[in-house]
Specification:
By secondary structure, this protein is an alpha+beta fold. It contains six helices and four strands. It folds into two domains: about 40 residues; about 150 residues, NADH Oxidase (3-Layer(aba) Sandwich), CATH 3.40.109.10. It has a four-stranded antiparallel beta sheet with strand order 1-2-4-3, with helices on both faces. Helix 4 runs antiparallel to helix 6. The chain is elongated and about 85 Å long.
Length: about 220
């Protein structure tokens, strides 16, 4: 008799466990399908590289979300760097007053064209390397910049690389506006926003510039 009373409750418990596991499985499959759909809709690495173009006109009604800003910075930090020195520093600018001040000291940055975000890519002038190797900070920060540009395109944003270093007046102006301390220099400003225009990518392939084994 005792075992007969226990049996129905065992069946109920097994049914509950089954439906719980089934529910988890369905949720997992739906999540997996969403992930595959997202990956299929997002451009691949080579497509991102081939279709990226500089954007200088932005949608003034849309600001770049904080989640996307973090993704851009993660891309910058993932760049290669000489002797793993990582000499970069990133100044993220979203305040309208500071954006306007940067626009005044770098009129070619197109910040006034509706950009909601600027990332100033800066480098330490003393990266711990000797002699001319100290200048590798420029290459390292350039690699970080390109990563950010590609990430911006992959995230549906528009961006343009606006050079600062080594033009002294631009360096001085950007350092003043952003309060960049001595020992660091701004390499460039990356102007970012949702694109108001979609310029066609340029085909820059040139057989004449390809040399194999020797020039």
């Amino acid at each position: 008799m005792k075992s007969n009373k226990i049996l129905p409750w065992t069946v109920v418990a097994l049914c509950i466990a089954f439906f719980a596991i089934a529910g988890l499985f369905v949720r997992y499959m739906l999540k997996t399908e969403e992930t595959f759909a997202r990956l299929k809709s997002e451009p691949g690495v080579l497509e991102t590289i081939a279709t990226r173009a500089s954007v200088r006109m932005f949608d003034k009604t849309r600001a770049v979300e904080e989640e996307k800003i973090k993704e851009l910075l993660k891309a910058g930090f993932a760049a290669p760097t000489a002797v793993d020195k990582r000499p970069w520093e990133f100044v993220v600018v979203t305040e309208p007053e500071t954006l306007a001040a940067l626009d005044a000291v770098h009129p070619h940055a197109r910040i006034g064209n509706g950009a909601s975000l600027v990332i100033a890519v800066c480098g330490t002038l003393d990266n711990g390397l000797d002699g001319r190797a100290k200048e590798y900070w420029i290459q390292d920060c350039s690699a970080a910049t390109q990563n950010i540009l590609l990430a911006a395109h992959g995230l549906g944003l528009g961006a343009v690389w606006c050079g600062v270093h080594p033009i002294e007046e631009r360096v001085a102006g950007v350092k003043r506006v952003l309060g960049i301390p001595e020992g660091y220099a701004p390499l460039n400003l990356i102007t970012i926003g949702y694109p108001a225009v979609h310029p066609a990518p340029k085909n820059k392939w040139d057989d004449a510039k390809i040399h194999r084994n020797r020039w």
